[in-house]
Specification:
The chain is an alpha/beta fold and about 600 residues long. Helices cover about 65% and strands about 10% of the residues. It folds into 3 domains: about 325 residues, ABC transporter transmembrane region fold, CATH 1.20.1560.10; about 170 residues, Rossmann fold (3-Layer(aba) Sandwich), CATH 3.40.50; about 70 residues, P-loop containing nucleotide triphosphate hydrolases (Rossmann fold). The chain is built from 18 helices and 10 strands. Strands 6-7-8-3-9-10 form a 6-stranded mixed β-sheet. Strands 2-1-4-5 form a 4-stranded antiparallel β-sheet, with helices on one face. β1 and β2 form a beta hairpin. α1 packs across α9 and α6 packs antiparallel against α8. It is elongated and about 120 Å long.
Length: about 600
């Protein structure tokens, strides 16, 4: 969830400058295009500023020859100037459009690269981050962050740089051709205008920050509620969800209204400054014409130059505000990129080489948070081709073993080894290629069943995928559907039952065919008949692989080579099924309780 952060102005400016510098590599990848676009920009502005200069000459020519416009001399000069005027107008338009066309690749290429980098970074962040994140907020931040790059480049190349270039040219003309007071009035007006714009914009920026944070919060609430649609319905909480959403939107609306009204104040102030500046310039120019120091063309030129300068400068106020807003949007995505990657490959990490598939935990200690230890001194070995089961009450730390084997987290102490290679010494990519999992809760993509099955190995042929579906006892079900393997499963697989999703997960791990397998309560969503069929498939599958089975139902692990009984993060018993029953400890109690539950269930059935 976003917090409203009100940082000091110098700190915000430092962040803005830092973020702008971080954009440079995205732009400099297209340096040829950037330089060509800048050249087109300068040529366009030379043509734009040349227009009023030619216009002055036309007015002066017409004025001086007004008594004899029919004479040959009176017509030749204006026609040449009219043609030059038209050519400059055309050149200005041509170079502006050329700049836009050349720069399009830079803008959209930078958006593409940033969006990809952010998503890649999100995939590299640890499971800890993703368990805490809100999907709606993150997706909005990525979207706004990518758009902010495009917008900033847009403002810089299409507004700020052209206005700056034009200002320099106008300043040169005024200093070169006219009295110093014209330049003083122009510079003073521009300075007051920019100062006023910056001051008021900075004052009202916190309304925009509030709007962003509340917009993301509202989006997060809406997405969260829709992802949990069934839960909302179970508890008749539609009104509650709408009330939460409405409350956030009320706050957002309040911030948005404040933002808009303060913008109106800013616009009026800018208009007043421009009006005063233009009036002073026109009075000075008018006095010059009356005194005979300036021609009528000079009056037109000064007026046109000022209007031409203040029109983009008027937009510059909006641009500055938008730039500040955009930099605020960019700040969110840069914070995402600055999130430290918790689980990293070492600089000298090599690929895991699996020969036998032996898995060994040596005195492993682990805590999600310092104040909440999960595993205490856990040691065990899964020998090549053996099946090791872990059982115990909820919260004993069973599923944590699977997460640590995948290296979703780094352990606090101890070692996890595969064929003698520590998991933190090898690349995460090669480690995860060697392990397959059937998770307790299978979440599917909102794509076809075929797509979800092939996800384990996108390059697999259709025959291999169908064979995996048959081994997972799901082929016949798929074939019975009207669209067969092309059936769309719905968001997070909601159109399939828990048991059907579980079979898709089993088919995927069969297709992946890794040397090490994890079944995390893999049959928990199945009825007794399906459980027996799939348990048989899993038994066949695990014969050729080193297998870790995390189980709730003890009946599914009686064939395990070794069973570990965990309680509060410690291994309290170990042995095979028969040996553990003989011990008459926690396992025997759990077994007796489950047998009793099954018999009661049969009697009730």
């Amino acid at each position: 969830m976003h917090h409203l952060l009100y940082t000091t102005a110098p700190e915000t400016q430092r962040n803005d400058l830092h973020n702008l510098r971080r954009m440079l590599p995205y732009i400099w990848a297209y340096k040829g295009r950037v330089l060509f676009a800048l050249l087109a920009l300068i040529l366009a502005k030379i043509a734009t500023v040349g227009v009023p200069l030619i216009f002055k000459e036309i007015v002066d020519a017409l004025d001086s020859n007004s008594s004899n416009l029919t004479g040959q001399d009176g017509l030749v000069l204006p026609i040449v100037l009219f043609l030059a005027y038209g050519a400059l107008r055309l050149s200005s338009s041509l170079f502006n459009e050329l700049r836009d066309a050349i720069f399009a690749r830079v803008r959209y290429g930078a958006m593409h690269r940033l969006s990809r980098q952010v998503l890649q970074h999100l995939y590299n962040l640890s499971l800890r981050f993703h368990l805490d994140r809100r999907t709606g907020n993150i997706s909005r931040d990525i979207e706004r962050g990518a758009m902010s790059v495009s917008s900033i480049l847009n403002y810089m190349v299409f507004n700020i740089l052209p206005t700056l270039t034009e200002f320099i040219m106008v300043a040169f003309i005024l200093l070169h051709q006219y009295e110093i007071h014209f330049t003083v009035i122009t510079f003073s007006t521009v300075a007051v205008y920019i100062g006023f714009t910056f001051a008021v914009t900075n004052w009202r920026m916190h309304y925009r920050h509030s709007m962003n944070a509340l917009d993301s919060k509202a989006s997060g609430q809406a997405v969260d509620g829709l992802l949990n649609y069934e839960t909302v319905k179970y508890f008749n909480n539609e009104a509650y969800e709408l009330q939460r959403y409405d409350q956030t939107l009320n706050e957002w609306e309040h911030a948005a209204v404040k933002s808009q009204t303060s913008m109106s104040l800013l616009n009026f102030g800018q208009g007043a400054i421009i009006a005063v500046g233009l009036t002073l310039i026109m009075i000075s120019a008018g006095q010059g014409v009356v005194a005979g120091e300036l021609s009528l063309g000079d009056l037109v030129l000064v007026n046109t130059l000022m209007l031409q300068l203040f029109i983009p400068l008027g937009f510059l106020g909006i641009i500055y505000r938008m730039l500040k807003h955009t930099l605020a949007d960019m700040q969110q995505v840069m914070r995402l990129l600055d999130r430290e990657i918790e689980v990293k490959d070492k600089a000298d990490a090599r690929d895991l080489k699996v020969t036998d598939g032996e898995v060994r935990f040596e005195k492993v200690n682990f805590a999600y948070r310092p104040d909440r230890p999960i595993l205490h001194d856990v040691s065990f070995t899964i020998h090549p081709g053996e099946k090791l089961a872990v059982v115990g009450p909820s919260g004993a730390g069973k599923s944590t073993l699977a997460r640590l084997l995948f290296r979703f987290y780094d352990i606090n102490s101890g070692r996890i080894l595969i064929d003698g290679q520590a998991t933190d010494e090898v690349t995460q990519d090669s480690l995860r290629r060697a392990i397959g999992i059937v998770p307790q809760d299978t979440v599917l993509f909102n794509e076809s069943i075929y797509y979800n099955l092939s996800y384990a190995r996108p390059d697999a042929g259709r025959e291999e995928i169908i064979q995996a579906a048959k081994l997972a006892h799901i082929h016949e079900l798929i074939e019975s559907l009207p669209e067969g393997y092309e059936t769309i499963v719905g968001e997070r697989g909601l159109k399939l039952s828990g048991g059907e999703k579980q079979r898709v997960a089993i088919a995927r791990v069969i297709l992946k065919n890794p040397p090490i397998m994890i079944f995390d309560e893999a049959t928990s969503s199945l009825d007794s008949h399906s459980e027996q069929a799939i348990t048989q498939s899993l038994s066949e599958l695990s014969q050729q692989h080193s297998t870790l089975v995390i189980a709730h139902r003890l009946s599914t692990v009686i064939d395990a080579d070794e069973i570990l009984v965990m309680e509060q993060g410690r291994i309290v018993e170990r042995g095979n099924h028969a040996a553990l029953l003989e011990k008459d400890g926690l396992y025997a109690q759990m077994w007796a309780l489950q047998q009793q539950e099954e018999q009661t269930g049969h009697l009730q059935g």
